[in-house]
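Q: Convert this sequence to C-alpha cells.
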Amino acid sequence: MLMPKKTKYRKQMKGRMKGTETRGIDFEFGRYALKALEPGWITSRQIEAARRAMTREIKRGGNVWIKIFPDKPITAKPAETRMGSGKGNVEYWVAVVKPNRILFELDYFDRSVAINALELAAQKLPIKVKVIEKEEQQA
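A:
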C-alpha cells in the first residue's frame, strides 16, 4: 500500500476541504481518466483496490497512472480508552481530494474496455467520480 517513506511530522490536524482543485486537473499520460466530482478522503487501501480492479480488467495491456498519493496521516485512539492522554497513533494514510482532480489515468487501445475498467475502479472509491476522455476535455 502507498504511504510516505519518511515524514517530518507524524501527526496532522483534520483540515478543511473547501473549494475546487486547481492542480492535477489536466491529462498528462493517458487517454481516459477518473475525475473527482466531490471532496473527500481516499485511503491507501481504496487506491490499491481501484488499481487492482483496473489492471485486472485490462489484463496486462495498456498503462495505469495513479495521480494521487496518500500523504495525510489519520490517527485513532484504541477502543474503550479514556479521554485525554494525548493524540492516538497513526492508523492509516489518506489522499485529500477536491472536485476536478484527476485520480487515475489509463491508456488502452480498446475504448469500451478502458471505460469499463475505470467504472470498476470508481465502485471502489467513496466519492462520486466521472470517466472522462482526452478529446472530451479539450472540446
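The first strand starts at residue 32 and ends at 36.
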